[in-house]
Write a sequence for this structure.
RNA sequence: GGCCCCGUCGUCUAGCUUGGUUUAGGACGCUAGGUUUUCAUCCUAGUAACACGGGUUCGAAUCCCGUCGGGGUCACCA
């Protein structure tokens, strides 16, 4: 039988990194076994389900590269894939449950139930339904329904038995049925609650393995019970440990950034998140840590998943991101960095005049970019600038702080120019030499610029006397790329201009 | 509180199935040093753990029991 797994988020919030990990493990499990990965939107709760969250989930799933075989916007044989559109199916099964007497209507009011619950908790017992409406006669049920009394639908659960299942991660897990009681299946004859809808859909969609978070472990016996009442084939379950916050509790919004889109906006690469997430509870068994999705598709194994929860460590994520940034094709990296530069208003796209405004989706229209002070940057030039900074970036958004001086005019401070205890006239002399050298370069190539500058630097007992003022004058910062690289990338006009400006403040 | 699950460096983990090859390995972080005009990269070193107690055994991180600790869950939410 073909392996079929599903990822079933409810659109009640932005796509959470914990959900992303569940989706990832399902995806890898399916790919490894050449099975299907299905996406199902669990939006039965109309109050809490929001369309924009569904869109957020879809968009970020795709951003992570977790393509599904069946799901919304990509209907397959077992659709629809949104629970809000599956009412007919649920109705059919609810009726069947009622007809076969596996389930019954319960007329107890919420207030009544709430009182019972409080009493149970006081006594230190597990709160569960008393079974009051279970043995109503068919006549009485009929009468009360006809009277228009409101009711919910409960499953009959035997008291004595226990339920066991073999969890793919944890091994044998056992629950006593008497702890569960007759739980509510549906709000009415056509409105299923989570456990019912889930069990029905897993069956209807021919799911073979349910892989989800540990927080669902106590739902599992309920879903098995429902399945048995409906003669469904039993599924295999696997419950993954939760992602923890630094205080070891379940990671949630109050701990800071938890949604995939937040990490995306900050400048994490999708492959970094994938790599980091898979390492939270899984390892290949040797010391390798750098993984891409397609490598994982071959190497992942459920057997190597840990049982214990793992703390989400942002420092480690950052480190993994630097690794992936370094190994990213410079073309792609540049394209990814440009939006950050635009967002910070360091760069503006220029369009060819006859094509402005550009048609949606048209390609190759953006020919170049313009800095705030009016200098033009081709994509090729930007590639070189980004390449020079990719070892200094932990995340893409940092490009705007690290390389800002390329794109705006800079303010130079006299103390910044000073290397150790150099006097002003020494500094002026050093900068003069730089101006001279750069002015005499005929062939403005990186190697030429570096060679000429280095030759001069080597004449000094301390190369810093020449190189530090140069670099400071070009960058306006105490931390930057190297002077040769900056000079070359700035071009002769801008580089010499900045040096002359620096010299002025020394006089 | 009931039920379920978990417990190796601060954090992510390898080792546990099949006890000895472990002075418990790697990574992140942190510290120090090297390379370097600065920053970053890179390189080297250091730091730090088997929750505790009892068994079983010639021998236990590894097997068993207990204790403690942590988490999840107990809805007409999902």
């Amino acid at each position: 039988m073909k392996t079929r797994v599903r990822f079933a988020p409810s659109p009640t919030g932005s796509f959470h990194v914990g959900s992303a990990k569940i989706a990832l493990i399902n995806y890898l499990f399916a790919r490894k076994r050449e099975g299907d990965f299905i996406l199902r939107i669990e939006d039965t709760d109309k109050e809490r389900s929001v369309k924009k969250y569904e869109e957020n989930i879809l968009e970020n799933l795709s951003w992570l590269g977790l393509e599904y075989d069946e799901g919304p916007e990509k209907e397959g044989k077992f659709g629809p894939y949104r629970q809000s559109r599956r009412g007919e199916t649920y109705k059919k099964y609810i009726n069947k449950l009622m007809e076969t007497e596996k389930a019954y209507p319960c007329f107890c009011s919420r207030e009544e139930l709430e009182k019972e619950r409080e009493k149970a908790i006081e006594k230190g017992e597990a709160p569960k339904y008393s079974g009051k409406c279970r043995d109503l006669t068919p006549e009485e049920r009929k009468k009360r329904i006809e009277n228009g009394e409101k009711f919910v639908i409960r499953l009959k659960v035997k008291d004595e038995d226990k339920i066991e299942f073999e969890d793919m991660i944890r091994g044998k897990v056992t629950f006593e049925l008497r702890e569960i009681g007759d739980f509510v299946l549906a709000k009415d004859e056509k409105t299923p609650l989570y456990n019912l809808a889930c069990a029905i859909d897993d069956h209807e969609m021919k799911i073979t393995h349910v892989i989800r978070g540990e927080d669902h472990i106590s739902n599992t016996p309920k879903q098995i019970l429902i399945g048995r009442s409906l003669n469904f084939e039993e599924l295999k379950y696997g419950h993954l440990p939760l992602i923890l916050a630094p205080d070891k509790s379940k990671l949630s919004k109050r701990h800071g950034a938890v949604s995939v889109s937040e990490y995306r906006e900050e400048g994490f690469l999708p492959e970094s998140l994938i790599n980091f997430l898979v390492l939270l509870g899984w390892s290949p068994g040797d010391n390798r840590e750098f993984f891409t999705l397609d490598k994982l598709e071959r190497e992942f194994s459920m057997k190597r998943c840990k049982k214990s929860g793992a703390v989400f460590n942002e420092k480690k994520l950052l480190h993994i991101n630097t690794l992936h940034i370094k190994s990213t094709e410079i073309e792609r990296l540049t394209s990814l960095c440009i939006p950050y530069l635009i967002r910070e208003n360091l760069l503006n796209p220029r369009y060819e005049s006859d094509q402005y405004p550009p048609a949606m989706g048209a390609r190759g229209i953006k020919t170049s970019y313009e800095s705030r002070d009016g200098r033009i940057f081709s994509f090729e030039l930007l590639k070189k600038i980004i390449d020079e900074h990719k070892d200094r970036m932990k995340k893409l958004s940092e490009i705007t702080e690290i390389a800002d001086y390329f794109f705006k005019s800079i303010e130079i401070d006299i103390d910044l120019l000073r290397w150790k205890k150099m006097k002003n006239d020494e500094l002026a002399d050093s900068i003069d030499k730089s101006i001279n050298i750069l002015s005499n370069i005929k062939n403005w190539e990186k190697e030429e610029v570096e060679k000429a500058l280095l030759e001069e630097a080597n004449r000094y007992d301390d190369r810093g006397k020449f190189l530090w003022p140069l670099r400071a004058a070009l960058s306006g910062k105490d931390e930057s790329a190297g002077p040769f690289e900056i000079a070359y990338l700035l071009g002769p006009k801008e580089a010499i201009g900045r040096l002359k400006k620096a010299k002025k403040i020394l006089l």
